[in-house]
Every structure is written in C-alpha cells, then in structure tokens.
Amino acid sequence: MFRVSVKLVVILLLIVTSGVVVFCVSIPIALQLQDNAMDFVLQELTSATEAVQAVVNRKLRLMENMADVLRKASSTGFLLNDILQFANWASLGVVQQQLDVSLFTPQGFGVAVTSDTTATISGAASPGYLWVINFTAPGSFLDIVQLPLDSTQISRMSSWTRINTTFQCQQLVGVLPITSSSIDEDPIRWVGVSPFQSMPGGSVQSSLVLGGVVNKGIAAMRPDKAQFVVVGLRGEMLVKSFLTPGVFHDDNGVALLIDTISGAYVAGNLDDATGTVHQSGSAQLLQVADLQDPRIAGFLRAKLHSSSFQITPSTALMTCSTPCSFTYWPHLNEVVDSPRKTAGFWNVLTHSFASVRVVDVGPSGHTPHGTIALRLVVVVPSDQVIHNLIDEMQKTSLAPYILMICICAVLTVVVECWLFNDLIRLGEGMLILASVFAAQSDSEPMTLAEELQCNIKTTSSSFFVEFERASQAISTLDREMHMLRAFSTLPTISIPGSKFSPNLEENRHDHTFPFESLTEFSGLVAANDPLPYCAPKGTLWRAPVTFVCAQLHPD
Questions:
Q1: What pTM was estimated for this model as a whole?
Q2: Where exactly are the transmembrane stretches of this chain (predicted)?
Q3: Any domain includes 402
Q4: Is 154 exposed, middle or buried (0-12, 13-18, 19+ CB in 10 A)?
C-alpha cells in the first residue's frame, strides 16, 4: 500500500488552498482588466475610424465642390476656347487635392488637367506643376504641356509636345458614362468606381469619378455645344489624404475603402494594388475577397460566427448594417460579429485579436441607380493598443503567486521543524520498538520490513506513514505483552477499598477496572514486586516450563 507522510499532506493542502484562494481572488480583477482592455481597443478603433471617415468625406465633398465650381464657370461661356483659362480654374484643385479634371464635348474635343501624365508620354509628377492635355485632333494627335501652378507663369508661348496617337478623350476614366447619360439628368452626379491606367501596359488603380453636363441650358437647345466636366480621384491619392501622422498611420492598423456595388477595393494602406490587368489586357478592379495582404487576408478567410446567418467575412463587410463591428481571433481563425464577444474566458488577456469597424462614407451628391456606395473598414490589432498593458499585467499577476510560494516555504519549514517534529520522532521510536519484538526466523534472515510483514498480520493499515508506524508498534507490543502475560503470574495482593479481587482466575477475564484502582494497583506492583523480564534488575520470567521429549525410530 502506498503511504505518505502527514507533513507532506499538510504541506500539499496548504499549497493547494493558498493557490485556490489566490486564483479566486484574481478572477474578478482579471475580468475587470479584460473589460478595460477591450474598451481601450474599441476606443482606439472608434477614434481612428472617425478620423479617417472625416478626412474621406471631406475629400469627396471637395470633389463635388470642384465640379460645381467648374460647372458654374463653364455655364457662362465655352471654356474650351481658352484652354489656359480652364487650367487656371482647375490647377488649384488638381495640385493641392491630387484630382484629375477633364472638360470635353460630345465630338471628342477637350482638355484634361492632372498632376501626372495620363498619356503615352514618359514623365513623373512634379510638385507644384500640372499637366495639360489638349485633344486637338481626336483620334490623330494630342498636345501636352507641363505648366507651373503660378498662373502668372502660364504663357501661350509654353512649349507643347505633340504626340501622334489614336487615344481619345472618351477613353478617359468616367467620360463615357457621363456622355451617354441624358442631358435632363442632374448636372453633377457620381458614376462609380472605375479602373484607371495611366498608360497602356502600366499599373492599374481605382478612381472615383463624378461629373455631368455643365451648360444644361445651351445643351438642351444645341446638343453639339454641350460641355461635360469630369472630376476623378485616384485611389492612391485618396490614401495619402488620411495616411498622415495626425489622422492615421500604419502603426494604427489597416484602413481601406470598399465599394459595395462592385465589391471592389478602392483605396487603403495595403500592399495590394487597387487594380489588375486581365489576361485579355483590359484593366479591372481588385475584389475585396481577393486581397492578399496578411493584415487583412486572415480576417477575410476566417470562419464567421454570425448571430443571424452564415456568410463569409468579405460579404459581411458589404452587407452588415452600419456602423457594425467584428472581432477577429487569429489563434482560432474565427470572426465574431460583435465588438465585445470573446472566443474564450481569458482570450483577451492571453491572445492577440483584431477589432474591425465598418462605417459608411460617401458623397452627399446624387448617385443614381446605386452607382456608388462606399464603406470604410478600419482594422486595429490589439497589440498596437494594449500590448504593454497586458505585459505589465502578466508580470504583476505573478507577484501574488511568488508571495504565496514564499509563505508556503516558511510554513513548510515550521511544519517540518516544529509542528510535526514530535510526531515524527514518536513514529520513529515506535518503529524501533516494533523491531525489538520482531520474531526471528530459523531460515533465511529477513529485513525489518519483512519481519514486520510476517509477524504483524493483524495490524490495521493507515494511509499515513507516522500512523502506520505507531499502529505496527502498538500491535507488536500488544502481541508481546500478551505473550509475556501468558508466562507470568500476578502476585496475590489485597488492596483495601478496591473492587479488584485478589483471585487471579476471577480477574483473568474481567477487564473493567476503575481507573483509580488500576493506577493504585500498578503503583503497588512496581513498589513491592519487580516486573518480570526486567533486564536492569536481573529478574527473569517466572513461569512454569514443560519439556516434551520425543525420539524418532532409527528406521
């Protein structure tokens, strides 16, 4: 039977009890800290979302204002007769807001102003300068010039570069949908998100476009005199507007603009481009579900646990009722449609997660037939907000357990050296006493444990070592005392006033003596007659011995 020491059991109970108490006390603190940590992440997420949302909405309103200014300027005259005057009108918005502005007629004549070339001419954007492209002969050639922003430096003698090309203004982004619309529709309207390619074979990016007819009265009477204005904002320029230290930066997480109509990725601080070139050579937008940046790809491909129905995370971004929030748990590859719902009891404190918030952004102008519906998605990783807090919490939470270990160590020493010291020594002494009376075998010698096992058959078992030793010693002593009693005779003593009868045979089976009488009797025996088998006094057993002899036949 397996046995342990009492002191070990007491020490283990002490450690377990202390650990359970410390753990139970830590639970409310940890739960409160978990709620506070989640609050910090949500506050950072909300703040970042509102900051980016304000910048994007302001940028889109600037586009509308730009288109409205050009509409009013063009409504009083035919600006295409004076290209430099149109450039003066458009230059401020083009350079400062990184917009692309075009003015053209249904016949294909027109002018485009941009801060970067949109034709097959090589060249990079120059700060403070703008490119003016004149579609002089649509389908044959066009003229390009780079002009400074300062209107006083614009001269009709500027050097123009003529390029022979079949490229026409109708091929510009957003021009065809605007020219094909009815003149009776709203003068300025959004036409959606379109792929923008600066030159054949070049990179593709998204572009937000709005525009319309600017001289509606004249165009109603003379359709050939109609003028159309187009204002575009490329995705990379939109990102630059909110990726600033005071608004949002890469350390905050991920911010991306998506179009729920086309499902396209419009802009964001991701490594993915907003557009791709199809195998056929045509430019197309990149879909949100196809994003590969690891900061958002894990979320898009995780399993969504929705309270309403099972859909993919990319679809949820498009269809959820804004503002909506999600929580992404990378270690479980799960997304829950709640900002506060955790995937486990301690997950906020033990694992990294990402909070996602989706809000509507968009133009205040007219968007007929659902041509554009923009949403802003902001993803904030928890490590960016509460990493230091969690680290300090984990270090601080070790202090109670370290203190508990120290206290338990001190109590262990107390238990070992003082509380159970007498019990241990008593057990060891009884074990030695039991070994004195252990029977000897005539055959092979046995160890102490084997002797006790052989001679003590009726010993009661105990789980504790100390109690087992005491039980063995008492059982052995009882056996030997009965043996000693069998070979001894009690003296005939009359004790005045005692109920103890001097008749030995009468008292042999009577074991109910008053305590006082037994004590008095024991004292008299010790005083008047030495106990048998007392080695120091030289007394031996006083017992009759019977010898039995037997002789075996020699055969």
A1: 0.66
A2: 398-420
A3: no
A4: middle
Compute and round to an integer the Cα radius of gyration of the chain: 50
Is 17 among the domain residues? no
Q: Which two three-digit tokens encode residue 422?
A: 């007498």
d(CA 496, CA 519): 14
Whether the Cβ atoms of residue 368 and residue 189 lie closer than 8 Å to each other: yes
- Quote the longest CA-to-CA distance of the chain: 157
Residue 517 has pLDDT above 50, yes or no: no
Residue 174 backbone dihedrals phi, psi, to 5 degrees: 85, -5
Distance between CA 292 and CA 368 in Å, rounded? 32
Q: Are residues 305 and 181 in the same domain?
A: yes
CB-CB contact of 142 with 201 (8 Å): no
- Whether residues 222 and 263 share a domain: the answer is yes
* Structure-token match 């252990």, residue found: 438
In a domain, 543, yes or no: no
Residue type present at position 200: P
Residues 291 and 440 in one domain: no
User: What domain range is 466 assigned to?
Assistant: 422-537
> Is residue 395 a part of any domain in this protein?
no
- Pairwise CA distance, residues 343 & 81, whole Å: 66
Most confident range (mean pLDDT) of 57-66, 89-98, 358-367 is 57-66
**Beta strands 141-148 and 129-137: pairing type?**
antiparallel
